[in-house]
Amino acid sequence: MSGPSSHYPSPESPPPNADITDSVAAIVSSLERWSQDPAQKIRCYRHASAQHRAESEATFRELTRQLGKLSAQSQETVKTIWTLFGQAEAPTRMLILAGLLNQCCIPQLSFLHRAVPPLLRIDFIAMAPPHIAFRILSYLDAKSLCRAAQVSKTWRRLADDDRLWHRMCEQHIDRKCTSCGWGLPLLHKKQRRCEVTDPEWIRTCTTVSDSQLPSVCVPVEPLVASTSSSLGKRRDAGHDLDDESN
Length: 246
What we know:
With about 250 residues, this protein is mainly α. The protein contains 14 helices and 4 strands. Strands 1-2 form a two-stranded antiparallel sheet. Strands 3-4 form a two-stranded antiparallel sheet.
């Protein structure tokens, strides 16, 4: 067996009379320290994630409980195997695993079939740098982005970011998306409408500025472009009344 590698953790072998909890904790902590070491060229996303650190506590308690059921000799054998595997380089680890799989019976293979898939699940959005996570979410449409916000608190914090929705709104202004069916209307410039029927006042409204309009025409309310035609009709009616009076 080769010596400790510079690319993988090398937990020290515990003394023969070491406590079971201390020995298992030493192996787990050595993996976490190695995964967080910035000098390492190979990054283990699983051991560096906060999710794994939370899950490893439950795994640590279960391993400690099961290891305590074994005899003293079996406990030392298991701890030695764990330590040697942690000290091995990547090709050596693969060779050890291949040899173990070759010796496994159906019950052991069935156990691996159940145990491995959950370990391979990694939250790629939480693990990725923020700019990469934003880039991934920027390809989603409005409906998918709303669904992504319901996955977890981390996903919601990223999916609710104004930068994503600002870009989303720019793409949907004055058009309707064929894929998501979502669109935003093009807002027109607002005009002013005054409820005035006196002909003299109507002529005054055509000459005063917007800042003077509230003092001349009361009340004044916003007018959208779609209803501006009614203003022209009222103004024409006012001129007709003026002509009749003359």
